Amino acid sequence: MIIWKDFGHQVNKNDKTIAEFLKSVLIEVVSENYRHLMAESVQRSEEYRGNKKCDGRKEMVFNPPLRGRERIVSGIFATAVSRVAQRSYPEARVDRPISREMDPEDGGNDEGQSAGRVDYLAFYQDRTIGFELKSAVANFNRVVNGTGGLTGLAIKRWANVQAQAMSAVRFLEKNPDDYPGAVGLAVMTLAARSVRKNRGQPESGFCQTFANEIEKNLMAPGGEDDFFVAVCEMPEKFRLFKNLSGKENGGDVYTPAIAFVARKFSQ
């Protein structure tokens, strides 16, 4: 994983704490993604050896969790946040004091309510982080060709997760005793999707091009210090999509890289 754009620290030295938290979470996320892949690799290799129909030439195809639907991605992040933060709660209410959130007799049944919730509430050092997460897809071929690779849905989801993080920090700041050093953190994963007719490595400099495309389309003008981009290149053997080999424009469908985009919000 390569950090292409880090948070700036010119305004508030405490922002380094948020950078440390996010980097630690992403290391856990990438490690957990790889652990899943290695476990799947072991399982599939055992099945592969026991399958008499395999002639030794069939390619094994894997399912990286970070390439999955948002609910799959969120499970990986929940594990990572719980390992990094001193305390963390998924799907936590932040529109009221934490003492009420911890009282099972208070508030009634609000399981269906989403207002006032954050995906993860994390306590890290002297900061309280309202962590919001989205996932989306980027078109690898368009990125390489310079014709734009971020779909309208990806841009919309990025706008939505930022709005959620801004809302979270406003709620947290209303209860500074319970939620000291409140920060809203918007994070989106972008899985690059490629259709290739050959099995070669990604074009040289793809990660840099991918990061530049993200900054151009997603970074707010004047908000450089609050913006973060990291790109993780997928290992070659784990890139191919299962059941999509040769089914799109005569080529195989790949995920060459996963990007992580983040923006922090605080007063």
Overview of this structure, please?
α1 packs across α2. This protein has a domain of 171 residues. By secondary structure, the protein is an alpha+beta fold. The chain is globular and about 60 Å long. Strands 1, 2, 3, 4, 5, 6, 7 and 8 form an 8-stranded mixed β-sheet that branches. The protein has 6 helices and 8 strands, in the order βααβαββααβαβββ.
Number of distinct beta strands: 8
Q: Say what oligomer this is.
A: single chain
| SS-based class | alpha+beta
Order of secondary-structure elements: EHHEHEEHHEHEEE
Largest sheet: 8 strands, mixed
- Average pLDDT over all residues: 78
Radius of gyration: 20 Å
Describe, in short, the structure shown:
36% of the residues lie in helices and 25% in strands. The protein has six helices and eight strands.
Any chance you could write out the topology, listing elements then pairs?
Layout: E1 2-5, H1 15-50, H2 70-84, E2 87-93, H3 98-101, E3 117-124, E4 127-139, H4 140-145, H5 152-173, E5 182-196, H6 206-218, E6 227-233, E7 252-254, E8 257-265
Parallel strand pairs: 4-5
Antiparallel strand pairs: 1-6, 2-3, 3-4, 5-7, 5-8, 6-8
